[in-house]
Amino acid sequence: MTDFQNLAAAVLAGNPAASDDALAVLRADDAELMDVVAAVGRLRRRYFRNTVKVNYLVNLKSGMCQENCNYCSQALGSEAPILKYSWLSPEETLEQAGAGIRAGASRVCLVASGRGPSRRDVDRVAETVGELRRNHPDVEVCACLGLLQDGQAQRLADAGVDAYNHNINTAESHHDAIVQTHTYADRVDTVRKAAGAGMSPCSGLIAGLGETDEQLVEALFALKELGSDSIPVNFLMPFEGTPMAGTWELTPARCLKILATARLVCPDREIRIAGGREMHLRSLQAAALHLANSIFLGDYLTSEGEQAQADLRMITDNGFVVQGSADELAQRAHVVETGPTIRQRGAGTGVLPNA
């Protein structure tokens, strides 16, 4: 039986987890689930204290994608009854983003379906980012526009984009089973282009795509090696009208173990509970916050999420604070500004000891 506390202590001491360690967490018995959360949660607290980063998605262009990703409701051949529309105007984007920012989001993720942007598309997004920056100068901006061509990453970075999201989605050894219109190497190349332009690389995965335990661990170590600063962990939403409709491989306990494994492998990275959390984690969403330090607020690209106020209440009810909120800033100031209290009692004084 694995001693999860000792495993977490070893990682805290600077000894990176190995593949066998990750598999032990992923394959933990359900009876050990809370032991896993308690142990691996120590890593989350070490690097992120009790803060939760809140992110908000704006789908700039929905549907009509020419890629054939089997899991995606926007993909070529998908018959999922989703909203389909062309580019939002900068004004519409600002309105949508503003709602998330007012609800507490510190990062806005601007997403557009498609294989990748044209030069005109990049210029359009750059204009939108400029408007967003002028109205909300403190918000982080992440773009997710698909595969990038040479020069496009730098154009986005120069426009003020802080981070670029492009998920590897699954292990290299499983990639061709879920999409055939682009390669795993294409995805890795885009993440590297983003990082090379100075944007924070954001790349994650989708669990429940028919991958093995070994392939899930393979993907997590690949993300670590790729240097992904932010790792969204999505759980497959099996949309009707897609090739993966009716695929239900996940349980709430399994999802919790996946998040624990991600934290063990990448202890100091932002682990974000992303699409499918409401559907698959269900009543264990609060427990997941003890492993992940980031969530999406509100709706997703083509599906609805929980009410924002319910999510914010879940965060505070469980002893966490929203990153960038008044509560978190006050907490941070107290930690930074309050030094040790100099002893003025006990030995060496005429005052009774504190005993």
Automatic annotation (TrEMBL):
Pfam families on file: BATS, Radical_SAM
Judging by the UniProt lineage, the source's domain of life is Bacteria
According to the record, how does the cofactor bind? Binds 1 [2Fe-2S] cluster. The cluster is coordinated with 3 cysteines and 1 arginine.
Q: What does this protein do?
A: Catalyzes the conversion of dethiobiotin (DTB) to biotin by the insertion of a sulfur atom into dethiobiotin via a radical-based mechanism.
This protein is called Biotin synthase
**PROSITE patterns linked:** RADICAL_SAM
Q: Which UniProt keywords apply?
A: 2Fe-2S, 4Fe-4S, Biotin biosynthesis, Iron, Iron-sulfur, Metal-binding, S-adenosyl-L-methionine, Transferase
What pathway or pathways are given for this protein in its record? Answer: Cofactor biosynthesis; biotin biosynthesis; biotin from 7,8-diaminononanoate: step 2/2
The subunit field of the Swiss-Prot or TrEMBL record says: Homodimer.
Q: Which reaction does it catalyse?
A: (4R,5S)-dethiobiotin + (sulfur carrier)-SH + 2 reduced [2Fe-2S]-[ferredoxin] + 2 S-adenosyl-L-methionine = (sulfur carrier)-H + biotin + 2 5'-deoxyadenosine + 2 L-methionine + 2 oxidized [2Fe-2S]-[ferredoxin]
Query: What organism is the protein native to?
Result: Prauserella isguenensis
Q: Which GO terms describe its biological process?
A: biotin biosynthetic process
Q: Which InterPro entries match?
A: Aldolase_TIM, BATS_dom, Biotin_synth/BioAB, Biotin_synthase, Elp3/MiaA/NifB-like_rSAM, rSAM, rSAM_sf
Q: Where does [4Fe-4S] cluster bind?
A: 65, 69, 72
Radical SAM core domain residues: 50-274
Does the entry feature the keyword Iron, yes or no? yes
Q: Which CDD domains match?
A: Radical_SAM
The UniProt record lists the EC number as 2.8.1.6
Q: What family name appears in the similarity comment?
A: Belongs to the radical SAM superfamily. Biotin synthase family.
What cofactor does this protein call for? [2Fe-2S] cluster; [4Fe-4S] cluster
